[in-house]
Amino acid sequence: MNISQISAFRAVMTSSSISEAARKLGRTQPAVSLAIRSLEESLGLALFERKGRQMVPVPEAHYLHAESEEILDRLSSVTRTMRSLAGGNTGDLNVTAMPGPAAFIFPRFVASVIDDLEKVNLSITSRSSQQIEELARSQSIDFGFCDAPARIKQSAQYEIEIISAGCFVAMPSTHDLPELEPFSIRALDGVPMGGLQPSHTHEKRSVSLFAEHGLHYRKVVESQTFMPLLQFVRTGKCLALVDPLSVVNELELMSTGGEVVFRRLDCDLRYDYAILSPVHRPLSQIAHKVRSKWRTSLFNLLDQAGAEPRWEPRSALPPGSGA
Questions:
Q1: Which of 49, 124, 183, 296 could disulfide-pair with 56, CB 3.0 to 4.6 Å?
Q2: How confident is the model at residue 18 (pLDDT cuts 50, 70, 90)?
Q3: Same domain, 9 and 67
């Protein structure tokens, strides 16, 4: 018994004649008759009494008809689901992002690209960049967005895509420093600064940048992430060198009430982001779709912020780049 036979059988059961059943199916009468005969032979049971051109179902045919309705309806549902899966509109999606983007930018993006949340088994979490790297290595996520790992190297467990973008100076809107853009790094000599933890690559790059220009990097506030630093900037306690997505986030949320402004630097202090994807975890079509759209959205966000983004091949990155 196969789907073609069952489809022909249901059509005959719901039609007044073989010819009507054939029209419903878009098949010829002989093809429908052959399907019915083949079905009867496979079952070892006559399903119809032939009375001239009429096909009169026997009692057993009514039982099979009830079962065939469920089978064909289920098949139709599976077909619709598979087409939806192929179109990237349904399926499983397990993604994560580091705390800054995970607070607003990343979930807003995911919400915008998922058409029907009832058709998606979604898990979206916030993790540290190191935790995201471990999740990718253990094949536990579809993809993660984080700071580029401190040591960029080939991995047999995950693929890495890196986008680099220029950083900004965050300062109070009332600050008396020149309103120039790009902003001169020399204007920050000895100025109270907020920064990240010493082990963070961005902090190391900032310290090195000041040293290269013979400037004093005077850090007075230390934070694990950028967003808390903006509250100290807002109240005039310090300035900060921040990544461009923090700029995008703040301009969207206005957590400082517009009391913090951002200026591009006149030197190439860049921040490296990474998209990590496990290599041994088959991705659903929706995971492929969301990851692809995130690449485009991320680049556009950074470009609109004036951060001059660029995708970086691994070989082009300097030793110890990333965070």
A1: 49
A2: confident
A3: yes
Q: Which residue has the higher pLDDT, 258 or 81?
A: 258
Which domain covers residue 158, as residue numbers? 91-164+271-316
Q: Which amino acid is at 200?
A: H
Distance CA 290, CA 109 (A): 9
Q: How many domains does the chain have?
A: 3
pLDDT average, residue stretch 197-206: 95
Q: How far apart are CA 144 and CA 94, in angstroms?
A: 9
Helix-strand-coil split of the chain, %, nearest 5: 45, 25, 30
DSSP 8-state secondary structure symbol assigned to residue 183 = B
Burial class (CB in 10 A: 0-12, 13-18, 19+), 303: middle
Q: Which of 197, 198, 192, 200 is nearest to 175 (CA)?
A: 192
Q: Cis link prior to 182 (omega < 30° from 0)?
A: yes
State the Cα–Cα distance between residues 182 and 76, nearest whole angstrom: 60
Beta pairing partners, 276: 144, 160
Banded model confidence at residue 318, pLDDT cuts 50, 70, 90: very low
Residues contacting 136, CB < 8 A, separation 6+: 143, 144, 157, 158, 276, 277, 278
CA distances in angstroms from 157 to 139, 299, 310, 312, 321, listed in the order given: 7, 25, 25, 20, 20
**Dihedrals φ, ψ of 314, to 5°?**
-60, -40
SS3 state of residue 226: coil
**Domain of 190: which CATH number?**
3.40.190.10
Mean pLDDT of the residues in the chain: 86
Give the tens place of pLDDT for each residue, 137-149: 999 999 999 999 8
Assign residue 22 the CATH number of its domain.
Answer: 1.10.10.10
* pTM for this prediction: 0.70
Residue 16 covered by a domain: yes
